[in-house]
# Entry
Amino acid sequence: MLKPKVFIHGIVNGSYSTPFFLTRFKEVMYHYSALFDIIDKTLPRADEARMILERDIYLHVVLNVIACEGSERIRETRELQEVEATKQEGRL
# Structure
């Protein structure tokens, strides 16, 4: 069981499940452009942690939301009740 000293809870609120490509594309662009602005200000471009974050995490999430349709889409959403239960139990 994890016992973090600090817990930062972020919720992504976007229309990622809409069947319309343009809406999904705009939502992803708004969200990830803000994240990349933060990364640009805090990590140098050659930083290994930044490259891992961009290549191994963000790349797959963005491609999944934008490029995949129907059953090809992987939705990694959790119900609010599940998130709240996890927080209450300390299994962060």
In short: The chain has one domain: 21-89. Residues 21-89 form one domain.
